Amino acid sequence: MFIKLVIFLLTRAKISNENRLSLTNAVLDKLGALPVRDAIRQDETGALLVNDRPVDLETAKLLRESARGALNSMALKVVREQVEFAAITVGVHQATDPWAMIFGKSAIWYHQQQEKYLKILVGQEDVV
Q1: At a CB cut-off of 8 Å and minimum separation 6, what does 111 contact?
Q2: Tens digit of pLDDT for each residue in 29-42?
Q3: Whole-angstrom distance, CA of residue 77 vs CA of residue 52
Q4: Which of these, 93, 119, 88, lies nearest to 105 by C-alpha position?
Q5: Which tens digit of pLDDT belongs to each residue from 57-111?
Q6: Does pLDDT of 47 surpass 90?
Q7: Parallel, antiparallel, or unpaired: how do β-strands 53-54 and 40-42 relate?
Q8: Strand, coil or helix: what is 116?
Q9: Residue 26: phi, psi to the nearest 5?
Q10: Residue 115: its pLDDT value, please?
Q11: Burial classification of residue 121, based on how many CB atoms lie within 10 Å of its CB (0-12 exposed, 13-18 middle, 19 or more buried)
Q12: How many CA atoms lie within 13 A of 75 on its CB side?
């Protein structure tokens, strides 16, 4: 019944786009379809949490070593540089509309976020 009501509201009811967005977000949150919190964060005591669960020392060590390996990986460095080059090419040099520019900026932002959180796991940066 709930699903039918949501489908009706989204497809036939005369509701504003803002209310459609709110309804969609509420349904996705209820279903747990999208992350609604940071996957990597610290609690009030400074303990590392991953997916809102405390990380034991062994897991923290594995995460740190894995993140350090990713940061120091020559293959990943070359791939990141290639992705950045492609993002700049698409977003700046070949952009024919604002969406291409946004796409290019998004690819660069993704790389920056990935590096930021790898550094957090390694312990080089504080969790924001």
Answers
A1: 80, 83, 84
A2: 777 666 656 688 87
A3: 30
A4: 88
A5: 899 899 999 999 999 999 999 999 999 999 999 888 898 889 989 989 999 999 9
A6: no
A7: unpaired
A8: helix
A9: -65, -40
A10: 92
A11: buried
A12: 2
What is the token pair recorded at 18?
Answer: 């803002």
Tokens of 3: 């699903």
What does the alpha-carbon distance between residue 75 and residue 78 come to, in Å, rounded to a whole number? 5
CA 20/CA 36 separation, integer angstroms: 18
Structure tokens at 117: 């959180």
Helix (H, G, I), strand (E, B) or coil at 128: coil
Per-residue HEC secondary structure of 58-94 comes to HHHHHHHHHHHHHHHCHHHHHHHHHHHHHHHHHHHHC
Per the document, the length of the chain is 128
pLDDT at 120: 85
Threshold 0.70, pTM exceeds: no
